[in-house]
Structure prediction request, 121 residues.
Amino acid sequence: MTAKITYRRIYEGSSPQDGQRVLVDRVWPRGVKKQDAHLDEWLRDVAPSTELREWYGHDPERFAEFRRRYLTELRDADHQEAAGHLRELAAQDRLTLLTATKDVDHSQAAVLAEWLAKKKR
Prediction:
């Protein structure tokens, strides 16, 4: 069975189809109470570094370079343990990566979902 890996905003309600729900932001999302988030985990250490996040600024024109730099960061020692754990979660049935970012298709959650899918092949 192939695990289904999806991503979306944490502000959307949870669903039984989500499987494991993992927040992949470094900073807790504004306006979300921890008890209302219905998270299985918060893997802040898999999120982009503060420096990369601030450089990117969620500018879609910088996304290709952000993606390249973030994939490089995922190989760094600072990210290896969290990235390995995320790969273990992805090997299960379903995984939903959550982010507060408005443009989820240009977010670390989108990069992680693609990265995890390639790691499974």
The first strand starts at residue 4 and ends at 9.
